[in-house]
Automatic annotation (TrEMBL):
This is Sec-independent protein translocase protein TatC. It comes from the Bacteria. GO terms for biological process: intracellular protein transmembrane transport; protein transport by the Tat complex. Forms a complex with TatA. Belongs to the TatC family. Keywords: Cell membrane, Membrane, Protein transport, Translocation, Transmembrane, Transmembrane helix, Transport. It comes from Thermoanaerobaculum aquaticum. One of its GO terms (cellular component) is TAT protein transport complex. The keyword Protein transport applies.
Length: 250
């Protein structure tokens, strides 16, 4: 199964300066989208943080709250919370700009799937973030609280948000792996055979990434991050097999 190839169609050629100008345009639109997303989320920053804190606060004794050590910490926290939420709000625009940047390297019939690309990338990004929020990070919080149960807890808002945003954004980006593989396969950079042949190295790389994203060094928690990535890699293998670039026949 493959998309029809259009050998007669010549892809547009762009100079280095034209590529840089196109990149500047896409980055500018993405920055504006992020700023708009930030403004939209600012009014609800307090509620958004309360939502983000649930993976931890659900394990705290009733009435116990996160602490802050600097007078401006809550204000800066809400700025960062609005920025993080703004990333997810603006993600359709940002991903569409990414599509527009790479579209000149694709054939006309491939560019027609822009709406599908936008939907899939947005869904995978949000799913990754939600998986980090609802599944992976609560396990991390529970593990760390159990380790420190013999000590008095002083949990700061900055430390918590830094850890939570790293996990949520990291998994949101990791869940884009099948989309990345699709692009590489369409460009002929990788094939499903190549991906299967190097599966063992991919697993090693995935556990390294999981160790970077995971705030804890224990293998069970890292596996919670790594196993979905392995499943996404195998999904990418399937995508490469179905939609990868076919060798030209004379």
């Amino acid at each position: 199964m493959s998309w029809p190839e259009a050998r007669e169609e010549e892809l547009p050629r762009m100079t280095l300066l034209e590529h840089l100008e196109e990149l500047r345009k896409r980055l500018l639109v993405s920055i504006v989208a992020l700023f708009v997303g930030f403004l939209l989320c600012w009014n609800w920053a307090r509620e958004i943080f309360a939502f983000l804190a649930k993976p931890l606060t659900q394990f705290l004794p009733e009435g116990e709250k996160l602490a802050f050590t600097g007078l401006v910490d809550p204000f800066m926290l809400y700025i960062k919370v609005a920025a993080l939420a703004g990333v997810f709000v603006a993600s359709p625009v940002i991903l569409y700009q990414l599509w527009l940047f790479v579209a000149p390297a694709l054939y006309r019939h491939e560019r027609k799937v822009a709406s599908l690309f936008l939907l899939v990338t947005t869904v995978f990004f949000v799913l990754g973030g939600y998986f980090g929020y609802a599944v992976a990070f609560p396990m991390v919080c529970k593990f760390l609280l159990e380790i420190g149960r013999d000590f008095r807890q002083v949990l700061t808002i900055n430390e918590y948000f830094s850890m939570a945003s790293k996990v949520i954004l990291g998994l949101g980006l990791v869940f884009e792996l099948p989309v990345l593989i699709l692009f590489l396969a369409r460009l002929g950079v990788v094939t499903h055979r190549f991906l299967l042949r190097h599966f063992r190295y991919a697993v090693l790389a995935i556990f390294i990434v999981a160790a970077i994203i995971t705030p804890t060094p224990d293998i069970p928690t890292q596996s919670v991050f790594a196993l979905p990535m392995i499943a996404l890699y195998l999904l990418g293998v399937l995508v490469a097999w179905l939609f990868g670039k076919r060798p030209e026949t004379s």
